[in-house]
């Protein structure tokens, strides 16, 4: 299951990581977010050691929401080398996410 991270540990875990990271900006009340959760678990297993998967709660970490222009839940951003290199909005299936990740990493 994706690890929940916060504004304070975001730079260390995402921006300064040697491994690319997918960050799921989500809300506890979001149906699409709940639908996406099992798919993210599958992605995490498939890319173990090659990709980190983290979750940021948009209701609590508003600084990150503003910084990355999050307007809907769920929004996925792929970070590589300390930079946001891709964004997906909405629930996606495994193949869609895998193809997107492969393009970017």
Low-confidence stretches: none
Secondary structural class? alpha/beta
Shape: globular
What helical percentage do the residues reach? Answer: 25-40%
Q: Describe the biggest sheet?
A: 5 strands, mixed
Q: List the strand order in the largest sheet.
A: 1-3-2-4-5
> What do the pLDDT scores average to?
96
N to C succession of SSEs: EHEHEHEEH
Question: Could you describe the 3D structure shown?
Answer:
The chain contains 4 helices and 5 strands, in the order E-H-E-H-E-H-E-E-H. Strand 4 (75-80) and strand 5 (83-89) form a beta hairpin. With 105 residues, it is of the alpha/beta class. A 5-stranded mixed beta sheet has the order 1-3-2-4-5. Helices cover 37% and strands 26% of the residues.
Entry keywords:
single chain, 105 residues, alpha/beta, 5-stranded mixed β-sheet, globular
In brief, what are we looking at here?
This protein has 105 residues and is of the alpha/beta class. It has helices at 10-15, 31-46, 62-67, 94-104; strands at 3-4, 21-26, 52-57, 75-80, 83-89.
What topology does this entry show?
Elements: E1 3-4, H1 10-15, E2 21-26, H2 31-46, E3 52-57, H3 62-67, E4 75-80, E5 83-89, H4 94-104
Parallel strand pairs: 1-3, 2-3
Antiparallel strand pairs: 2-4, 4-5
């Amino acid at each position: 299951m994706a690890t929940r991270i916060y504004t304070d540990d975001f730079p260390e875990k995402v921006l300064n990581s040697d491994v690319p990271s997918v960050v799921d900006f989500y809300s506890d009340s979001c149906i699409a977010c709940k639908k996406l959760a099992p798919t993210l678990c599958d992605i995490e297993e498939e890319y173990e050691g090659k990709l980190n998967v983290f979750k940021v709660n948009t209701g609590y970490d508003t600084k990150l929401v503003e910084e990355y222009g999050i307007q809907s839940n769920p929004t996925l951003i792929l970070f590589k080398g300390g930079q946001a290199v891709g964004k997906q909005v909405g629930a996606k299936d495994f193949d869609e996410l895998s193809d997107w990740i492969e393009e970017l990493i």
